[in-house]
Amino acid sequence: MGGTAYLTSDRVAYSPAAAMKKRYATILFLLLAVAGFGPPDSAQQKVRRYRQAHELPLLTEYMALLAIPNVAADTASLRRTASFIAGMMRQRGIQTRLLPAATPGVPPVVYGEVRTPGARRTLVFYAHYDGQPVNAAQWAPGLSPFQPRLASGPVSQGGQLLPMIKAGEATNPDWRLYARGSSDDKAGVMAILAGYEALVQSRIKPGVNLKFFFEGEEEKGSPHLGEIVEGNRALLASDLWIICDGPVHQSGQKQVVFGARGDVNVGLTVYGSRRPLHSGHYGNWAPNPALALAQLLASMKDSTGRVSIAGFYDDVVPLTALERAALARVPNLDATIQQELGFARAEGSGQGLNELINQPSLNINGLRSANVGAQAANVIPTTAEAMLDLRLVLGNDSERQVAKVVQHIQRQGFFVTTDEPTAAERARYPRIVRVAPQTGYNAERTPMDLPLAREVVAAVQRTTTRPVVQQPTSGGSLPLHVFKKIGATTLTVPVANYDNNQHAENENIRLGNLWDGIETMAAIMQLK
Amino acid sequence: MGGTAYLTSDRVAYSPAAAMKKRYATILFLLLAVAGFGPPDSAQQKVRRYRQAHELPLLTEYMALLAIPNVAADTASLRRTASFIAGMMRQRGIQTRLLPAATPGVPPVVYGEVRTPGARRTLVFYAHYDGQPVNAAQWAPGLSPFQPRLASGPVSQGGQLLPMIKAGEATNPDWRLYARGSSDDKAGVMAILAGYEALVQSRIKPGVNLKFFFEGEEEKGSPHLGEIVEGNRALLASDLWIICDGPVHQSGQKQVVFGARGDVNVGLTVYGSRRPLHSGHYGNWAPNPALALAQLLASMKDSTGRVSIAGFYDDVVPLTALERAALARVPNLDATIQQELGFARAEGSGQGLNELINQPSLNINGLRSANVGAQAANVIPTTAEAMLDLRLVLGNDSERQVAKVVQHIQRQGFFVTTDEPTAAERARYPRIVRVAPQTGYNAERTPMDLPLAREVVAAVQRTTTRPVVQQPTSGGSLPLHVFKKIGATTLTVPVANYDNNQHAENENIRLGNLWDGIETMAAIMQLK
């Protein structure tokens, strides 16, 4: 069936004897099934058979969803995306409506409900339909953010583009589907709705009331999610939110995540001369903003990658004993991932990835000043820009964390402004930086011993033979704080492959992950 | 007549009495001229009157020249540019031919000759018709690199776009003409050819044999100029090359420059992971190449802007007593320019611009890593790039200067390669940078007491009432070393305004400078 794309932990040794035993058991089971003997299909098997029989229509529908642009700036396309999802829900018999924000022009939440007679609990299934910004020029040849394409594997590792399957053809689980949002997070929308569809079509009744909540501003920092959630407090009453976003573990093992880091972006623009200057006639006299920016950024982290901003690691609420124990059980694939990613030394002074995602971070998302490569000219640029990304853990406050960064910048001798510098400011301050913090939010964590959470872990475990990884927190961020405001509890159950290029060019989903995700969501819907 | 765009030195005080006296003298002169009395027109006056009477055809021709793209990558357009210039020369009765390089595919030199009966000396007039790379998106609204447009002044200071003049209309000398190459250096081509035209049409005979030499690879570092010059050694025999490139002094005073700095560009690419990563899931574990690049660049200069690379200021040949004396006479407008450019502190530990351009320099021309602003995504970039520009003075060698930079990079713990890093290199070296030095060349200086050079200064002085500034060297660079190889002597006589945005977006020429340049070139052609 082709090599698996998953990384295998060193701890899971391959045993030829066990494999042989398993193969005989499978043959025996198939013989009994063909003969009409054996136990009736489990719900899990029914869901899988339904998906296997419907790969063409499911993929066709998913590719139509992916073909609608979903970046923040393109609000018209975001509305089309919302309408398309509402249509998907209605086709599945889900009562559907759009929940607008009080602020005009905001992409609406697509909301839906299915009441289960006799159910005692209610679960909300969350995903977001907006995606990160795109720069189409950076995508690999033949790929484009909103022209979904199948490939035989990761194109970065020689995967070839494939035509769409025909009726009667099956996909290979290691194939990739390329498009912005294919993993982050239209995959969540698709896994949830296809999971529900598979249940209904297989005549399996959900065990709980279901609510569906698809957001359109997550990648923008969910600036209006609070308005929508608080304006629909009664409608959204629930026992638990299932957040379907992010990747499963790098080992390919399914994962339940109890919290998420907070996040805030800060744009920086350093100013030089008003107009670009000839680097020969004025170089090393007129100040170079690219150099000043480099000096500023270099001052923010030491050579081991530790953030050197004063107080950056203060405020952190330590992990509980239960969380520390769970963290110790998370497989450590650092060496294997590092080799795959092709770098010789990780940041973090020897701490592992699992530990580091439980700490606040500072990352440079991008740099820009004038031009490089073939477009470079011999100039002193007028400005130099960077985008910072600060991830926050429990105890950090996004505004306080930004304030620490601003204070650090001031200590480096910069005048900090939030506007274009005035003539008076230019005349007065040798180093000027414009700081543009975006909307941020804080981290949240759900206690790992919450009974309903334990039931979710058990339901997910029923869909897989490998252990479900339990993470105290995700390295990525989710607007969980908003749900907390209406007293909701959240649990994240991701479906995407870890090597999905999410947030970047060539975003993709491994088809096996989408199919597994459908089974995961259907299993959770069967909780009583 | 509109405010002048020139900066005025503090030393030149405005005197109302002197201005009144001058005004009366002008009126008297005009009255005499109208009455048919007075001395016959000087050659200088005839050249000016010719230009004044032909602004429309001169501008029309120049704008047609500017409309042909001239960036290095677009060799087809460079050939069109060369043909167009050859046509301009033939129309003026100049014997013209293209001089190809031995290497195929190189934009040819456009060469021309005018023999002056009885002349004892020969001058070659040099300009280049290629331009720096462009990024059209960075130009101001309404402007485009190859759609020349007139404006009432600098668009950055509120200058308005103007329609082309009609027959009978005159231009204002403070108007600007916007296009790539309008100053650097199609202005040189135009000033030389229009200067010659004005002489011929005014029936003034040149005093020397004239040769015209227009290059098409100067902004690329003139990689094939040596081939062409050495392959045409006899054809190019001369007493002096007049290099018409660069800006006049910031005061607006005309300028003769005896040398030029050398130049070499070095591209840097720092590598991170093979694929872009989610900044939440991997940030502060996977190394960030933007941070590594910032740390590397920050290490290259101290907080005063002095280059901290070991040995960077070694090798420099000191200025002669004559050069030091000339430098001391160059007007110092630092404070005024600094105010106009809008920065509070210059680099260079208190040394002035005139001193600093006589030292080697290191400038960051551009930075790029992933995206910033609205396109920024929460990623760890895979690479971070910078382009360095090293300017060289007499004594520096371009390869030796690059070697010092490379050694510095290695001392910062980087593995330096000239190719994409291999898997083995990625696995072995924590910090990897790809270094791509471009073709560079060294500085040259002509002795300031050379008799023919003194004659050129005197000829230029005859076209202006303000003192001609004499610079030992130009901050910018010119491939003078190539001419030196065939024993030629060079002198640079620029025409462009200093605030021309040369090398950047919104490049422009002040029309008064183009008109003055025509007079300057015509005056030099009259040397005996």
TrEMBL record, chains A, B:
PANTHER family documented for this protein: BETA-ALA-HIS DIPEPTIDASE, DI- AND TRIPEPTIDASE DUG2-RELATED
Keyword annotations from UniProtKB, A to Z: Hydrolase, Metal-binding, Protease
Originating species: Hymenobacter fastidiosus
Protein name per its UniProtKB record: Dipeptidase
Pfam family, one: Peptidase_M20
InterPro entries, per the entry: Cyt/Met_Dipeptidase, Peptidase_M20, Peptidase_M20_dimer
Alphabetical list of SUPFAM superfamilies matching this protein: Zn-dependent exopeptidases (SSF53187)
Residue span, Peptidase M20 dimerisation domain: 268-411
